[in-house]
Structures are given as structure tokens and as C-alpha cells.
Design a protein that fits this description.
By secondary structure, this protein is α+β, with helices and mostly antiparallel strands. It is built from 5 helices and 8 strands, in the order ααααββββαββββ.
Length: 204
């Protein structure tokens, strides 16, 4: 991503240097037409700069997805511990915002800005977490396909009610499952996006 962004900046700088030296602009730049119009770039340089900028954006999006996966894998490893308290689960994914008390969930501000919200849910008895819920900050940033690359094949549980959300379940490890809510795409859940998900603790 850094190399692509640097290329875009270099191309713009080169065009600026040519202009400062009084070089004759290309026809596209002089006439205000072509892909370099209004930028001081020739059509070829403008196209290269556009490609480099797009590549930088794509690399940034990929880096964001990688960070999200790192957060999810780390949280799954945490939940897979044989013994774990609610406060330990909270500290592992963010900072405490509000503990609703009793059997209710704990609201957490995630360390990872890719997630807008998180909450740790409790088991009915004791100070043990049942799982961690995450809400994705940017719509479309997390997909079923991306989760599949990281966690493998998924299962699609039956929907209990026609209004129930579509879900897929990935087995992320011996002690953790990823239960993702899916907004279906053209091919159903396979190319769907994930607005929120739960990391379920499977340790008994």
C-alpha cells in the first residue's frame, strides 16, 4: 500500500517539475481534455497516477480486513481458554463502557476501530463469558468470503422464522465458533456481507 501511494505522489511531483521547467503541456492538458485535464499530467501519467491511487485504496481495504481477522482470531483464542472471567474477556477486546449487571451483557468499546461496538455476554451462572458480539463499523467491510478464507467452510443453520436473519457458522477452533449474520448477495449467503457477528465460546 505504501509503495502504491508513493508511486502516485512521485508521478504528480514529476508533472509539477516539468511544469516549473516551462515544458510545453500535452495536447490533452492544454485543451482541457483527456484523462490528465486540469491536473498538469499527460494522459499517460494521469492514468498511471489513477491506477496507483486505486491500488493504494485496494491495499488499504485489504489491510483493514487483515486487521479485523487478527482481532477475531485473537478474541477466539481468548474465549478458548479453559478458565476465563467476564472482566478478562472485556479487557481482551476493548475497554469497559457499561456493565448492565446480573445476567446481562457488558458493553465494550473495541480496541479495533474496524468494529463500532462490542459486548460480552454472560453464562446464566457465575462470572463466565458465553461469547463476544461485534458490530462492523463500515458497511460491506466484512464478507462471508473473507471469513471463509480465514476460518474455512461454514454451515448455514435453518431459519426458525421467515423474518429471522440469515446466518453462517464457522468453526474457528476447538473452543470457539464464529456465528455471522449475513446480508445476502446475488448468490445468496456465499457472496453476502456481514454487518455483525458473535464469537461463541464452546468451552464446557
Amino acid at each position: 500500500m505504501k509503495r502504491a501511494a508513493a508511486l502516485a505522489l512521485l508521478l504528480v511531483a514529476c508533472a509539477g517539475a516539468r511544469k516549473d521547467k516551462g515544458e510545453r503541456p500535452t495536447d490533452g492538458a492544454r485543451l482541457g481534455s483527456g484523462s490528465g485535464a486540469g491536473t498538469g499530467l499527460s494522459p499517460t501519467l494521469a492514468a498511471d497516477a489513477a491506477l496507483a491511487t486505486a491500488a493504494a485504496g485496494d491495499a488499504g481495504a485489504a489491510a483493514g480486513r487483515t486487521d479485523m481477522m487478527t482481532t477475531l482470531k485473537s478474541a477466539c483464542e481468548l474465549l478458548s481458554r479453559k478458565t476465563l472471567t467476564v472482566s478478562e474477556a472485556v479487557a481482551g477486546v476493548g475497554t469497559l463502557e457499561r456493565d448492565l449487571g446480573g445476567r446481562l451483557q457488558v458493553i465494550v468499546k473495541p480496541h479495533d476501530p474496524a468494529f463500532a461496538k462490542a459486548q460480552v455476554t454472560r453464562l446464566p451462572e457465575g462470572d463466565t463469558p458465553a461469547g463476544i458480539d461485534f458490530e462492523v463499523a463500515t458497511p460491506g467491510a466484512l464478507t462471508v468470503a473473507a471469513l471463509g478464507v480465514e476460518f474455512g467452510a461454514y454451515k448455514e443453520p435453518p431459519r426458525i422464522h421467515p423474518d429471522s436473519p440469515y446466518k453462517v457458522i464457522f468453526k474457528a477452533g476447538p473452543g470457539c465458533s464464529v456465528v455471522a449474520v449475513v446480508q445476502r448477495g446475488a448468490k445468496g449467503v456465499a457472496d453476502g456481507v456481514v454487518p455483525r457477528l458473535t464469537l461463541r465460546r464452546d468451552v464446557l
